[in-house]
Design goal:
Layout: E1 3-5, H1 16-20, E2 26-28, E3 33-35, E4 55-57, H2 67-76, H3 92-95
Antiparallel strand pairs: 1-4, 2-3
Protein backbone atom coordinates (compact mmCIF):
# COMPACT_ATOMS: atom_id res chain seq x y z
CA UNK A 1 0.00 0.00 0.00
CA UNK A 2 1.04 3.60 -0.52
CA UNK A 3 -0.01 7.10 0.34
CA UNK A 4 -1.21 9.39 -2.43
CA UNK A 5 -0.98 13.15 -2.92
CA UNK A 6 -4.36 14.49 -4.00
CA UNK A 7 -5.65 17.36 -6.10
CA UNK A 8 -5.67 19.91 -3.28
CA UNK A 9 -1.85 20.00 -3.35
CA UNK A 10 -1.94 21.59 -6.82
CA UNK A 11 -0.93 25.26 -6.67
CA UNK A 12 -0.22 24.94 -2.92
CA UNK A 13 2.78 22.59 -2.69
CA UNK A 14 3.27 22.72 1.05
CA UNK A 15 6.32 20.59 1.86
CA UNK A 16 5.79 19.84 5.56
CA UNK A 17 5.32 16.20 4.53
CA UNK A 18 8.81 15.99 3.03
CA UNK A 19 10.50 16.76 6.35
CA UNK A 20 9.01 13.73 8.09
CA UNK A 21 9.41 11.16 5.32
CA UNK A 22 12.01 8.56 6.37
CA UNK A 23 12.51 7.17 2.84
CA UNK A 24 12.52 10.24 0.59
CA UNK A 25 9.58 9.11 -1.53
CA UNK A 26 8.36 12.61 -2.41
CA UNK A 27 9.01 14.11 -5.83
CA UNK A 28 8.59 17.75 -6.75
CA UNK A 29 7.01 19.27 -9.81
CA UNK A 30 6.42 22.94 -10.63
CA UNK A 31 3.23 23.25 -8.57
CA UNK A 32 2.54 19.80 -7.07
CA UNK A 33 4.19 17.02 -5.08
CA UNK A 34 3.79 13.29 -5.66
CA UNK A 35 4.68 10.13 -3.77
CA UNK A 36 6.54 7.28 -5.43
CA UNK A 37 4.41 4.23 -4.58
CA UNK A 38 7.43 1.93 -4.92
CA UNK A 39 9.36 3.90 -2.28
CA UNK A 40 6.54 4.67 0.17
CA UNK A 41 6.70 2.40 3.22
CA UNK A 42 3.22 3.30 4.49
CA UNK A 43 4.60 4.84 7.67
CA UNK A 44 1.68 7.35 7.94
CA UNK A 45 3.97 10.20 9.05
CA UNK A 46 3.23 12.49 6.11
CA UNK A 47 -0.55 12.46 6.23
CA UNK A 48 -1.08 14.51 9.41
CA UNK A 49 1.67 16.98 8.42
CA UNK A 50 -0.09 18.23 5.29
CA UNK A 51 -1.75 21.62 5.91
CA UNK A 52 -3.90 21.10 2.81
CA UNK A 53 -5.04 17.62 3.91
CA UNK A 54 -3.96 16.45 0.46
CA UNK A 55 -2.39 13.11 1.43
CA UNK A 56 -4.37 9.93 2.04
CA UNK A 57 -3.79 6.23 2.16
CA UNK A 58 -4.42 4.42 -1.10
CA UNK A 59 -7.19 2.52 0.72
CA UNK A 60 -8.95 5.79 1.61
CA UNK A 61 -8.89 7.44 -1.82
CA UNK A 62 -12.14 9.30 -2.44
CA UNK A 63 -13.80 8.13 -5.68
CA UNK A 64 -13.29 11.52 -7.35
CA UNK A 65 -9.54 11.37 -6.60
CA UNK A 66 -8.75 7.83 -7.78
CA UNK A 67 -6.87 9.08 -10.86
CA UNK A 68 -4.25 10.56 -8.53
CA UNK A 69 -2.86 7.12 -7.68
CA UNK A 70 -1.74 6.66 -11.30
CA UNK A 71 -0.70 10.31 -11.56
CA UNK A 72 1.56 10.01 -8.48
CA UNK A 73 3.14 6.88 -9.95
CA UNK A 74 3.65 8.45 -13.39
CA UNK A 75 5.07 11.78 -12.24
CA UNK A 76 7.32 10.27 -9.56
CA UNK A 77 9.24 8.57 -12.37
CA UNK A 78 10.13 11.88 -14.05
CA UNK A 79 10.21 14.52 -11.31
CA UNK A 80 13.20 14.89 -8.95
CA UNK A 81 13.17 13.74 -5.34
CA UNK A 82 12.62 16.45 -2.76
CA UNK A 83 14.13 15.82 0.69
CA UNK A 84 13.93 19.14 2.51
CA UNK A 85 11.11 21.48 3.36
CA UNK A 86 10.70 24.56 1.18
CA UNK A 87 8.36 27.51 1.30
CA UNK A 88 4.94 26.80 -0.23
CA UNK A 89 3.94 28.57 -3.42
CA UNK A 90 3.34 32.30 -2.82
CA UNK A 91 -0.45 32.09 -3.11
CA UNK A 92 -0.82 28.63 -1.55
CA UNK A 93 -3.23 29.76 1.15
CA UNK A 94 -5.53 31.25 -1.48
CA UNK A 95 -5.59 27.98 -3.47
CA UNK A 96 -5.99 25.68 -0.46
CA UNK A 97 -9.46 24.15 -0.69
CA UNK A 98 -10.27 25.38 -4.20
CA UNK A 99 -12.03 22.53 -6.07
CA UNK A 100 -11.26 21.21 -9.56
CA UNK A 101 -7.57 22.15 -9.73
CA UNK A 102 -6.36 19.29 -11.96
CA UNK A 103 -6.49 21.59 -14.99
CA UNK A 104 -3.82 23.76 -13.32
CA UNK A 105 -1.31 20.92 -12.84
CA UNK A 106 2.01 21.83 -14.46
CA UNK A 107 4.02 18.91 -15.69
Amino acid sequence: MTFVVLENCIKCKYTDCVDVCPVDCFHEGPNFLVIDPDECIDCTLCEPECPAEAIVSEDDLPPDQEQFLALNEELSQIWPVITTKKDPLPDADEWNGVPDKLKYLER
